[in-house]
Design a protein that fits this description.
Length: 72
């Protein structure tokens, strides 16, 4: 069997195209996760900012949990 360099080039180009598409998918997934994490962080910051000196124990406990989650 003879080795055909043109067939090999075609196969490698197809393989590269598949890898590029897969990488684009991963990039999109990472950006989506990043956006969701940013939104979660903003929500926790908003919750932590709700604590006031006159807040009841439940509100203080929830605000403390939000600050602890932000610290991690």
């Amino acid at each position: 069997m003879n080795w055909n360099p043109w067939k090999e080039i075609k196969r490698l180009r197809e393989h590269l195209a598949q890898q590029v598409e897969q990488t684009k998918g991963w990039c999109d997934a990472m950006m989506s996760c990043s956006d969701r994490l940013d939104a979660a962080e903003q929500t926790l910051q908003a919750i932590a900012a709700e604590e006031k000196p006159t807040s009841n124990a439940t509100v203080k406990r929830i605000c403390k949990m939000a600050r602890e989650a932000l610290a991690k």
